Amino acid sequence: MEENVDLKLVIALARAHSALFGKIEKSMKAYDLTISEFGVLELLYYKGTQPVQQIAEKILVTSGTITYIVNKLQEKELVARKKCEKDKRIFYVELTKTGETLISKVFPEHEKYLGSLFEQIDPEIKSRLVADLFSMKACVEKQK
């Protein structure tokens, strides 16, 4: 039977994703955050106030899921919602002072953690892998 490299690629990507995000999830628990909550805080920290729907698109979750995540972050007093003045159907999310303080502490530690996870991989290989994966994404998205 001939090797199916496409199938092996999917399996390898899925296992790498599972291993990586399992580690990240564990590290976020130390801050009482989920990966998705961290993603929202990081986005707001670097991009500023954002519409709810745009946050969902950026962190790759559904509109229903982003509502749940934002509600949880509001309960923790890390973000606040505000209505758009021009279109009352649109809500924006912004960091609170508590949220800004937390993410400004957590993000540098997260970067160091990722560095430790990938320290044994040659920087050129990492750069090439990033380029190849983005190329793969573009190729997949072109398919019908």
Would you summarize the structure shown here?
By secondary structure, this protein is mainly alpha-helical. The protein is built from six helices and three strands. The relative contact order is 0.10.
3D architecture notes:
This protein has helices at residues 5-29, 35-47, 52-59, 63-75, 97-117, 123-142; strands spanning 50-51, 79-83, 91-95. It is mainly alpha-helical. A hairpin with a 7-residue loop joins strand 2 and strand 3 (91-95). The protein is globular, with a radius of gyration of 18 Å.
End-to-end distance: 29 Å
**Which H/E pattern describes the elements?**
HHEHHEEHH
Helix percentage range: 55-70%
Q: What spatial form do the alpha-carbon principal axes imply?
A: globular
What kind of sheet is the major sheet? 3 strands, antiparallel
Low confidence ranges: none
From the helix content, strand content and strand pairing, which structural class follows? mainly alpha
User: What is the overall number of helices?
Assistant: 6
- Mean of the pLDDT scores? 94
Number of separate strands: 3
Strand order of the largest sheet: 1-3-2
Radius of gyration: 18 Å
Q: What proportion of the residues form beta strands (DSSP E)?
A: 5-15%
Keywords:
single chain; 144 residues; mainly alpha
Give the SSE layout.
Elements (H helix, E strand, L loop, with lengths): L4 H25 L5 H13 L2 E2 H8 L3 H13 L3 E5 L7 E5 L1 H21 L5 H20 L2
Antiparallel strand pairs: 1-3, 2-3
